[in-house]
Write a structure and sequence with these properties.
The chain has about 600 residues and is an all-alpha fold. Helix content is about 60%, strand content about 0%. Among the domains are: about 30 residues, no CATH class; about 80 residues, no CATH class. It is elongated and about 125 Å long. GO terms for molecular function: translation elongation factor activity.
């Protein structure tokens, strides 16, 4: 407990024990020990007997004085570190040398940790001091940090208890030279982030108003993981670079696009805190900042589109690696969502103007960015940092095919509003253009737009168009139609057509012709179906619901989450049955009497049975 005191020339318990063992007069020896090791204040000695008279133990008095001095010293350390004195680093370094031998003493440890915490802060700009120094380069800039002496850092790092209690400012210095240790600290946070994102996609809240994309960028950045990572990085460019490398590696290993979201959120969180030491040297900062504003508005307007284009066109020769990070930022689902929504809006405007997609520069830029984002994994995996070339047939064939579907729908809608004598015998089309089918299967950019067109028609509550399009999603590029993000949004949008589920024909299209085609091989599809039914079970045609429940019963080897969802659905169905009014059979009014004919001379009215 008192290890380190002898190094500072201060007596400890062992010294007192030795003195009492060898002295002829123990009482005199105790008085002498108190005089040598007590508070060296002459006027205090005459006051101490008064405390004895009041029954105050000397230990209690000395402890209260010690606590007060410790608090004052810790406050003074913070003031020195924040000050502008030229010798502030040397003062703290001297205090560290004197106090560090007592680092394992619980009462002194807070002082040592306070000095370790503030030492880099006091020395950040004092590069002339002969202490340790680390310089990192990011791009053309350099950041200098004065280090806590390496010998002391090794002692802290080797002792688990010391490492646990030391401030994050000290840990940063340990981490920057120990990537494996930093990885151990960061890894649980990254796992937690992915779990939280997946939990949001499987949320029980099935609604268009409260979807995965509802939270604003600023709200998302207040998440626990982002805030913790931001604190761990601080202003340390080397640690920031390590986190980015972890995210790239995990994205390559798992293809999980949520790592792309975290890459953008982390940079913008540092931007919010005005950490210019990092933001000014990350070449993606201004691009991400501009895109973040678009995500907030859920639309890329003309002005911001030109700014984003300027950043893409400004990538210089020899700096092509920046495209890898830009593609990750554009691969963020929130960025993709904004880009495709903007494309849909752009197409509607072109349709109203009778203009072709290829004649719109804004549309071509949006497609360019969407293509770059969709190709992020391939680019980072191949290490060929070159923008993927957009297939022009997406513009010249797929988009016209998709717009023709819109035109078909508009013609049918107008036709239905005409007076009956002016209506033609035209029926709603059921087939889709071949180009639409083919590009859904072969091109990921086209497939993304096709999927979002489904949301567009669902928002309009267009049952006919939905029944025409949903079966075409069974076979899409890389099974994108069975991804969690699409199914999360689709189930929310289908709640807008809840009344249509009373029709077995509509149920057959949604379930038999689409969702149930893959639920047995893809558990995520099974879970999304159950999520939706938890909200719509009372709207589904009863006879269809009965067969659906049998089909959706989870197999024994399925996950606990799936079984739990199914159990919840069964409970809801049972509760719904009990709450439904039971129609009792009405008693017959037939009294078993025969009809009697009443004749009258004044009227020839027909006879009336009783």
């Amino acid at each position: 407990m008192f290890a380190g005191l002898p190094e500072l020339g201060i007596s400890n318990g062992d010294d007192l024990k030795e003195t009492l063992t060898n002295c002829p007069d123990p009482l005199k020896a105790i008085d002498q020990f108190q005089m040598e090791n007590g508070i060296l204040l002459p006027t205090l000695q005459s006051a101490l007997p008064f405390l004895d008279l009041h029954g105050t133990p000397r230990l209690e008095f000395h402890q209260s004085v010690f606590d007060e001095l410790r608090e004052n010293l810790m406050e003074r350390v913070a003031v020195i570190a924040e000050g502008k004195e030229a010798d502030r680093y040397s003062k703290l370094e001297e205090l560290l040398e004197k106090s560090f031998p007592l680092v394992k003493m619980p009462s002194i440890q807070p002082v040592v940790m306070q000095v370790l915490k503030h030492l880099p802060k006091a020395s950040a700009c004092q590069s002339s001091v002969s202490g340790g120094k680390w310089c990192t380069k990011y791009g053309d800039s350099a950041v200098i940090y004065m280090l806590v002496p390496e010998k002391k850092l090794k002692i802290v790092m080797a002792d688990k208890e010391l490492y646990k209690v030391c401030a994050v400012e000290v840990k940063r210095q340990i981490w920057q030279d120990n990537q494996a240790l930093f990885g151990d600290e960061v890894s649980p946070l990254l796992k937690q982030y992915i779990v939280e994102k997946e939990a949001a996609l499987f949320s029980n809240d099935v609604s268009v108003l409260h979807s995965f994309f509802s939270p604003s960028p600023k709200t998302r950045r207040q998440g626990e993981v982002v805030l913790k990572l931001t604190q761990m990085i601080g202003k340390n460019v080397k640690l920031y670079d390590m986190v980015l490398q972890f995210l790239r590696t995990l994205f390559l290993r798992t293809r999980n696009v949520h790592y792309c979201t975290l890459r953008a959120e982390l940079l913008m969180s540092l931007h919010d805190l005005d950490i210019t030491e990092i933001c000014s040297v990350d070449p993606c900062h201004k691009f991400t900042w501009c895109l973040d504003a678009c995500i907030r508005e859920k639309f890329v307007d003309g002005k911001r589109a030109r700014e984003l284009q300027g950043f893409l066109d400004g990538v210089k020769k020899g700096q092509e690696q920046v495209l890898g990070d830009l593609s990750m930022i554009l691969c963020d689902p929130f960025a993709c969502n904004t880009l495709v929504l903007s494309i849909m809006r752009n197409l509607q405007e072109l349709l109203s103007q009778d203009a072709l997609p290829r004649d719109s520069p804004d549309l071509m830029l949006l497609l360019r960015m969407l293509s770059l984002g969709q190709g992020a994994w391939d680019m980072i995996d191949s290490q060929v940092f070159k923008e993927p070339r957009l297939d022009l047939e997406v513009v010249t064939r797929f988009l016209p095919a998709m717009m023709s579907v819109v035109v078909d729908d508009n013609i049918f809608t107008v036709e239905q509003k005409l007076p009956s004598e002016e209506k033609s015998s035209q029926v709603y089309p059921t087939l889709l253009p071949d180009a639409f089918y083919r590009y859904l299967q072969e091109n990921r950019v086209a497939c993304e737009m096709g999927l979002y067109y489904i949301f567009h028609i669902a928002k309009l509550r267009n049952k006919n168009a939905l029944q025409r399009l949903l079966p075409s999603l069974v076979d899409t590029y890389n099974d994108m139609a069975f991804g969690d993000i699409f199914l999360h949004l689709l189930t929310g949008h289908l709640t807008l057509l809840s009344d249509e589920f009373g029709s077995e024909d509509f149920c057959s299209v949604v379930f038999d012709n689409f969702l149930l085609t893959s639920f047995s091989s893809k558990e995520n599809v099974h879970r999304h179906i159950l999520r939706m039914l938890l909200h719509l079970h009372h709207k589904v045609a009863p006879s269809y619901m009965e067969s659906l429940i049998k089909t959706l019963e989870p197999p024994k080897q399925s996950s606990e989450q799936l079984k739990e969802l199914y159990t919840k659905l069964m409970e809801k169905l049972e509760a719904h049955k009990k709450s439904s009014p039971v129609l009792e059979e009405k008693p017959s009014l037939d009294l078993g009497l025969h009809a009697v004919t009443v004749s009258t001379t004044t009227s020839s009215a027909p006879t009336t049975p009783f």
